[in-house]
Amino acid sequence: MKKRIAVIIPAYNEEPSIGSVIKEVGELGDDYDAIVINDNSTDRTSEKAAMEGAIIINLPYNLGIGGAVQTGFKYAFMKGYDICVQVDGDGQHPPNEIPKLLAPLFEDGIDIIIGSRFSETTKYSITFMRGLGIKILSLFLKLTTGLNIKDPTSGFRAINRRVLELFSKHYPQDYPEPESLVFAYKQHLTIKEVPVNMSERMYGESSITPVRAAYYMVKVLIAMFIDLFKKY
Amino acid sequence: MLQMQLLIGFISIVFFVIIFEFIRKRYLREEYAILWLATSFAIAILSLWPGLIDIVSRVTGFYYITAVLILIFLFVIAILMHYSIVISKLKDVNKELVQKCALLELRIYDLENKR
After folding, report:
1. Residues of A in contact with B106 (CB under 8 A)
2. CA-based diameter of chain B, in Å?
3. Lowest-confidence range among A47-56, A154-163, B64-73, B83-92?
4. What is the pLDDT of residue A131?
5. Higher pLDDT, residue B42 or B109
6. Percent of chain B with pLDDT over 90
7. How far apart are CA B33 and CA B37, in angstroms?
8. Using CB atoms within 10 A of its CB, is residue A196 exposed (0-12), middle (13-18) or buried (19+)?
9. Phi, psi at residue A32, to the nearest 5°?
C-alpha cells in the first residue's frame, strides 16, 4: 500500500516563492499533498497557493512558526497521513530533496529525519555568526542529550505518524526547531540527520544583526536547557 | 504620624472605590477583584492600626521603612508572577483556539466544495 505523505509548508508573506514550491511538491507524485499554513500573511500568499491547488489553512492571526507548523501537524494527523514533511515556504528547501529524507524513515524505521545543509556537496553558504550559532546549539545538544545533529535549526524535516501524533499535542512554540529535538530526545524518539542540498533564499535578506543573534542564542539555549527538565 | 495615617486611610478608600467601580463595570473578573479588594482592605488596616507595622518589623527584624518596602515589593512581585502565569495560560489556550478555528474553516470550505 502506498504511504500518504503530507508536505506542510508554513508561509508568512512568501508570495514570490510559494507557487514554485507547491509545483515542485506536485511533481513528486500523487502520494504527496502540499498543505500550506498561511500564517496571516499580508500579501497574496494564500491566493498564489490556491492557484497551484494546495490545501490551504489560513490562520486568523500570526501565530509564529511553531504554532503554524503545529497546525499543519494537527491537520495531517487528523487526515490520517502516514508521513509528514516540513518544508519552508521561502524556497530554501528544494522539494526534490524530500525523497532523501524519506529513505531512512522507511528503511530504518527512524522517527525524525533532519535535512542538514552541512554536507560535502552543499552549495549553501551562511554567515559566520549564523554558522557559529548553529555550532554552539549543536554542541549543546551533543553535551546534554548525546545527539549528533550538525544543523539543529534546520526546518527541513520528515516525521512518521507516531511523532505526528506527539507533535500535534505538544510542540514547542518559541524556538521550535532546536527545542523539538530536546523534546524528541526526552520522548525516546530516534533522530537522524541526512545531508541535503539547500538553495539560497530566493529573495530577501535576513535581518539578524550580531547583537541580536547573540541575544537569540542565549534565549534558545535557556529554552533548550529548561526543556530538558520539562514534564509532559 | 496622624497625617500619614490619614493619608493612607484616604488612599485605601480611593483604592476601594476604584476597585468597586471596576467590578461594577465588569472590567475585572471576580477572582482578580477579590485579590485587589483584599489589598485595599490591607491598606485600610495599616492606616487604622499603624502599630501592626512595628510588630511586623520587630518579628522580621527589618527596620520600619525597609520592612514596609520589602513587604510591598514582595507583594508586587507575587502579583506580577501571578499575571505571567495567567498570560502564559491565556496565550496557550488562545493558540489552541486559533488552530482549531483555522482547521474548522478549512473543513467548512472542503464540505462546501465537496472535496
Report:
1. 55-58, 75
2. 79
3. B64-73
4. 80
5. B109
6. 28
7. 6
8. buried
9. -100, 130
C-alpha to C-alpha distance for A133 and A116, rounded to whole angstroms: 15
A91-150 pLDDT, tens digit per residue, is 889 999 999 999 999 989 999 999 988 754 444 566 777 788 888 999 999 999 999 999
Q: CB neighbours (10 Å) of residue A177?
A: 21
Residue B102 has its nearest CB partner, among A60, A78, A173, at: A60
Question: Which domains does chain A show, CATH number per domain?
Answer: 5-227 (3.90.550.10)
What interface predicted TM-score (ipTM) does this complex get? 0.85
Grid coordinates belonging to A89: 515556504
Instruction: Give the per-residue pLDDT at A206.
Output: 55
* Residue whose entry in the numeric block shows the C-alpha cell 498561511: A38
Best interface-test mutation with B: which of A39, A56, A59 has the largest number of B CBs within 10 A?
Answer: A59
* pLDDT for residue B70: 79
CB contact under 8 A, B98 and A55: no
Residue reference for cell 489552541: B96
The count of residues in chain A is: 232
Distance CA B19, CA B13 (A): 10
pLDDT at residue A204 in the model: 47
Alpha helices (runs of H) in chain A, residue ranges in sequence order: 15-26, 45-51, 65-78, 98-107, 128-145, 161-169, 176-186, 210-227
Q: Which residues contact B29 (CB under 8 A, 6 or more apart)?
A: none
**Chain mean position to CA A106:** 19
CB B98 to CB A63 under 8 A? Answer: yes
At residue A191, the 3 state secondary structure works out as: strand
Q: Are A119 and A222 in contact (CB under 8 A)?
A: no
Q: Are B9 and B47 in contact (CB under 8 A)?
A: yes
Question: Residue A143: what pLDDT?
Answer: 94
Candidates A156, A164, A196, A154; CA nearest to A4 is: A164
* pLDDT computed for residue A97 by the predictor: 93
Q: In the 8-state DSSP scheme, what is residue A67?
A: H
